[in-house]
Please model this.
Amino acid sequence: MITLKDIKENDKFRTLIKWAAKCMEAIGYTEHGIRHCSYVSATARNILEKLHYPERVQELAAIAGYIHDIGNSVNRKNHGPSGACLAFQVLTEMGMDMDEICMITSAIGNHEE
Model:
């Protein structure tokens, strides 16, 4: 079972987050690196905890929150769908359950809606 800890330790996700932050900095946006990822991750988990969702769903929300902006490594415009595609690839390589991948990529792909 893939956890947030596994995501944080994954070299591909680390690289995507690093490049997303660089791209955002280059166009004058606020910080979008590890601090932002960690904040969104903790907030997503906290919301679902307060709503009494199962612990695994809370963990998936934390994962989605942590990697939600990796599409910024491609382009700011449509970074949600781009990020969902990137996340799908890496999560599949990591061996995550397909239902869990779909839950995460749906959240990432629609987070600007």
